[in-house]
Amino acid sequence: MHADLALLIVNRVIIHEVPHRRDNTAPVLSQIQSPMDDAVRQLLKERIIATVGDPTKAFGIEWDPQTTSPVPGLVTTHLSTPAADMLVEYSQAMAQRLFTTQPTTSPGGLLLVIDAAMTAQPALIILKLEKQEGARIVRHPATDGKLTFDIKHYKDLILTPKTKVFKIALFTPLEDDTEAIACDNQRPYAAHKALADYFLHQFLGCRMGVSPNVSTKEFFDRSNDFFQQHYSKDPKRYASVYLQLVSELQSNKTTLSPKRFAMDHLPVKDQKAYLSYLEEHDIKQTSFDKDNEFLDKELTRIMYGFASGTKLILPSEEAEQRVTLTNQTNGEVMVEFTDRLTNIKGR
Prior knowledge:
two-stranded antiparallel sheet; 11 helices; alpha+beta; single chain; 347 residues; elongated
């Protein structure tokens, strides 16, 4: 998570009752936000951090472009223009969607839609809590006559560590996308089945995100494929952008942005083709966490391979300093390598 969860501020919460589909009853929808004091805000914050803030429980998710769920549009609209008066309407639509998509084996419970912020950055948290045996859900009229649920009546049900039967997702905007993490306390740790299908796919309209180490390796491999093809007649340019790619991955940056890399290191005329190539190979153009776990060999040494079968291998940090490439008119490249000779061995 790029934003600091420790800085989370809970602004408002709206609660809806989503019954068991076999109960033959419709969702009970709040008309206004629930009343909340500072103690409840703090308990909610602690409960959120304890789940989506735990890397052993939470998983990165992303919007599924094939989804028919209205939730992605509702979330992104709210994050781009947070509006307290519209959030009730958005949350009601979410409750209706949850009711129609959850399986008949899923018990009824509460849907909490929480408007929050982190470092002046908006956030939206969606929490589904299943009603436990014997729990009563009581609704009360607010002072203006509109109906809502008083969250203070559900401290034991919602806000204590003993509560284990719930699902939660947190969304916050990035520069050009939405960052999202989710947790399903009913499921054991298993990346491919970490979240209930109906909650992740049918309701949230999301899919599991790719892990950072895989994303980083794919970005490196596909970028190199493009450079090799696109600059096949310009080996000097190919070597230059490859070294820039290695440098980007070796930098202290904790995230990668293909769009930013293209703008910083590629000629303007090549940027669109490069980004389109990545998109064709399912590499998103938005920022993602960098993890070089699968790239140790590629980042520690550089190998120059030639048509004759000759190979020049050297430490990556030495490549740019010791190798000079000059394109020749016949399509070949002249290589100048400068170093101190220490020995020669025959094979």
